[in-house]
Input
Amino acid sequence: MESSKFSVQKDEMGYVEIVMYISTVVFPIIRKILIDQEKVITVCNNINYYIISNVFKNRNEETIALVVTLDLMIEMMKLSYTHRCYRKEIWEMFYNGKFFKMNLKISQRWKKIMNTIMQSENEKFSDLISRITLGSPTNIFISREQELINRALMLRRLGYIIFAGENDQYLKQLPIIQEKIVELLKESNNLTNIEVINPLYNNNNINNYLLYI
Output
């Protein structure tokens, strides 16, 4: 058992060294190595398939493997035309129920990733708002409790996007945010109300936010 555990740790460290090399040495100069933009996209597609998607599928917020993988994504995202290579994986993770089970290191990296992807996909904010619904009494396939949990998580995602953004980045969207909050508060549900009043809107208060979640 100890031998097997050591082997896993050794394999992970090997992975970490490779990903760190790609992130810190290869990718910063990739445009000099591969002048053709399509070749860069091909490399990014391969990185997404063999590295990013595999780590996300076997996600463990405590592993260094996830940390260096997110660092690699942050480096890749500096080239905006590569976003399409891994945007699907980003949004799948963001809407995953386990997204908020993260430590401080992971949250700091996701903050950069989500802010960058939102700046290139402005329509996603409206999509996120539209997902925060009061639900329908005719929906017999989802329990009332699950419906409330889903709504609270969507509110938390909205808060995280605002938290990840720059100061006043979503000022123009404030009226629609206020309208949605008023709509939800009228329902007077404790779980939803907790999400509405939580202190994550202070962009500089990451520690309070992580304590909350």
Observations:
- The chain has two domains: 1-121, 122-213.
- The two ends are 35 Å apart (CA to CA).
- The CA atoms of residues 70 and 110 lie 7 Å apart.
